[in-house]
Design a protein that fits this description.
Oligomer: single chain
Structural class: alpha/beta
CATH architecture: 3-Layer(aba) Sandwich
CATH topology: Rossmann fold
Number of domains: 1
Shape: globular
Number of helices: 11
Number of strands: 5
Strand order of the largest sheet: 2-3-1-4-5
Strand content: 5-15%
CATH class: Alpha Beta
Distance between the termini: 38 Å
Radius of gyration: 18 Å
Helix content: 25-40%
């Protein structure tokens, strides 16, 4: 049963490389908002050695260390058991299972929801902000969040060539730079499949919970268009220097201080071959609802 919480959750979902981290930081620029980043990774193996956006290791961070202590003290699950249930109830491959638990919640799902609730409560107790922003991306996560809090869901869409161009980059682990996992260049077919399934799952979720779809190439050029989705934002929010005080995980840009929003879109797609560019453009013609 949903509780009366002193906070509201803004949940950002969508495929990777779609601008979810910068949107998280942007929405968190309000005085009464807190940017968590990809909160789903809070009990990832080695998370304590990764870097918070305050440039301290998360295990030594003045914000996340007490949050973790409070959460683990109240949660009905150990961090190990919570991780098992997270893997069971999050991710596109688990969508049907989570949908079934929405109507017929199992004991494990209830325990997962309860533990997740204690996590958000601990975050609120430490930040005191009425808006908690989570950019975990997964389309399944709102099924748990909406059980205990009011949630606004934003589905971020980026055109296929923009995503494919990013996925062709060779990314190596560099914790100090904010890169926690390696990502070698991906095959075009693999990116297409993942991009399609992810956006399809997100589309189903925003229909189920009445969320909003936001297109990367539109809001990055006209950030003021976000005002109709997030009315709490001040009208000049996109003109300020942006900082994320304690962002847990996400794109490495979260570690860069005093950022200014660059309202431009790169359409050169320099990593794509001519045939890949043509194929990507064809995909975009066939999926205008995700590729505007």
């Amino acid at each position: 049963m949903k509780r009366n919480k002193p906070y509201k959750i803004i949940y950002i979902q969508g495929y990777g490389h779609s601008g979810t981290t910068i949107l998280d930081i942007l929405l968190g620029s309000s005085e009464d908002a807190f940017s968590c980043g990809e909160l789903t990774f809070i009990n990832r193996a080695g998370i304590a050695d990764e870097f918070c956006s305050c440039n301290n290791r998360i295990g030594q961070c003045g914000f996340w260390s007490p949050v973790m202590k409070s959460w683990s003290g109240k949660s009905p699950l150990s961090l190990k058991d919570y991780k098992k249930l997270r893997n069971l109830f999050e991710g596109n491959s688990n969508y049907l299972r989570v949908l079934r638990n929405q109507f017929f919640p199992s004991k494990n799902f209830k325990a997962y929801v309860e533990s997740t609730e204690y996590l958000y409560d601990a975050i609120y107790d430490n930040c005191g902000k009425s808006l908690i922003i989570d950019s975990s991306k997964q389309a399944t996560r709102p099924f748990a969040l909406t059980k205990f809090a009011e949630v606004q869901i934003l589905h971020i869409c980026r055109n296929f060539r923009g995503v494919l161009n990013s996925e062709k980059k060779n990314v190596v682990v560099d914790l100090k730079e904010g890169v926690e996992s390696a990502s070698p260049p991906k095959r075009t077919a693999k990116v297409l499949l993942d991009w399609f399934i992810s956006n399809l799952a997100c589309a189903c979720t925003i229909v189920f919970f009445k969320g909003s779809r936001i297109h990367f190439r539109r809001w990055i050029v006209q950030p003021e268009s976000l005002l109709k989705h997030c009315k709490y934002l001040e009208h000049d929010f996109y003109e300020r220097e942006l900082n994320a005080d304690h962002m847990l995980a996400g794109n490495k840009i979260r570690l860069l201080p005093n950022q200014k929003l660059r309202s431009t879109v790169d359409t050169n797609y320099q990593r794509l071959t001519r045939s890949q560019n043509f194929f990507g453009k064809t995909v975009e013609i066939l999926t205008p609802f995700w590729s505007k």
